[in-house]
């Protein structure tokens, strides 16, 4: 009988509003239901990993994120706010693209602890961008304004917006997904990978503008970043790429400590 896996998911952060009342006056840490349920569908127990901040009752020295890497089997970095351009040495071109520096630092520390423990990491959307930046890469702050003739990666239809991708020949994703014709993915992002971080390889690109859509680590641990949202795919979306083989590979690596 296989043991039940314990997978951590990084928290999204919501900050107090200046005029907020009740919950709107509090810092909130939360999961998006769809990503938690996508992982739990394979009989996994999910734990949200809270950030450790300096502005509360907690003594920062008393709790380490390394404890989560020690006790959990794997980590998922979920989507959300932009990565602050300061993380890759650039000023924000526009104030609304400044992202969430607090979350950046928290997730980079968390990523580092899981990599040090050789525990598998899967990044989704922002999570893929965070992995790339943590490994020394950079991002386009806004694809639409920084790339001529870009593919549309963001639309008002949100989790129903798709575009096509091409898997890198001979890569991990092609090995897991095969050469099936369905290559549409659900895309919700205005930023994207510009320069690739160290010890990373490209696994997929968008058709049209060649934007990097998936990356993997070339080291000894499972490290995979998907720019799209596999958790938003519905069973009726027959033309959208079914990424359950990727999830199962991540979970198998979490169980065994080995990956292909």
Topology:
Blueprint: E1 6-10, E2 12-14, E3 28-30, H1 33-40, E4 45-49, H2 66-71, E5 74-77, H3 101-116, E6 121-124, H4 126-134, E7 138-140, H5 143-146, E8 162-167, H6 172-177, E9 184-186, E10 192-195, E11 200-206, E12 212-217, E13 223-226, H7 244-256
Parallel strand pairs: 1-4, 1-5, 5-6, 6-13
Antiparallel strand pairs: 2-3, 7-10, 8-9, 8-11, 11-12, 12-13
How is this structure best described in words?
The chain is α/β, with parallel strands linked by helices and 260 residues long. It has 7 helices and 13 strands. The protein has a 9-stranded mixed beta sheet with strand order 4-1-5-6-13-12-11-8-9, with helices on both faces. It is globular.
With helices defined by DSSP (H or I, 4 residues minimum), what is the helix count? Answer: 7
Residue runs with pLDDT of under 50 for 5 or more positions? none
The helix/strand series, from N terminus to C terminus, equals EEEHEHEHEHEHEHEEEEEH
Tell me the distance between the termini.
23 Å
Query: What's the mean pLDDT score?
Result: 91
Secondary-structure class: alpha/beta
Overall body shape: globular
Percent of residues in β-strands: 15-25%
Helix content: 10-25%
Strand order of the largest sheet: 4-1-5-6-13-12-11-8-9
Can you summarize the main beta sheet? 9 strands, mixed
Radius of gyration: 18 Å
Number-wise, the strands total 13
């Amino acid at each position: 009988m296989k043991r039940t896996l314990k997978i951590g998911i990084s928290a999204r952060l919501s900050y107090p509003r200046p005029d907020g009342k009740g919950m709107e006056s509090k810092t909130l840490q939360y999961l998006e239901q769809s990503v938690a349920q996508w992982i739990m569908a394979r009989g996994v127990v999910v734990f949200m990993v809270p950030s450790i901040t300096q502005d509360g009752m907690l003594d920062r020295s008393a709790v380490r994120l390394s404890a989560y890497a020690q006790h959990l089997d794997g980590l998922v970095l979920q989507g959300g706010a932009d990565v602050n351009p300061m993380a890759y040495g650039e000023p924000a071109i526009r104030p609304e693209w400044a992202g969430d520096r607090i979350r950046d630092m928290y997730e980079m520390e968390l990523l580092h602890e899981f990599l040090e423990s050789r525990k598998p990491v899967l990044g989704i959307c922002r999570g893929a961008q965070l992995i790339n930046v943590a490994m020394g890469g950079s991002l386009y702050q806004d694809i639409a304004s920084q790339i001529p003739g870009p593919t549309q990666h963001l639309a008002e239809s949100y989790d129903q917006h798709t575009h096509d991708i091409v898997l890198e020949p001979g890569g991990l994703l092609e090995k897991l997904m095969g050469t099936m014709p369905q290559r549409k993915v659900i895309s919700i992002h205005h930023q994207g990978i510009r320069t690739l971080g160290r010890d990373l390889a490209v696994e997929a690109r968008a058709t049209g503008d060649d934007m990097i859509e998936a990356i993997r680590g070339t080291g000894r641990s499972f490290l995979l970043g998907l720019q799209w949202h596999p958790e938003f795919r519905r069973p009726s979306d027959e033309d959208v790429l079914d990424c359950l083989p990727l999830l199962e590979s991540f979970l198998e690596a979490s169980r065994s400590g080995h990956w292909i």
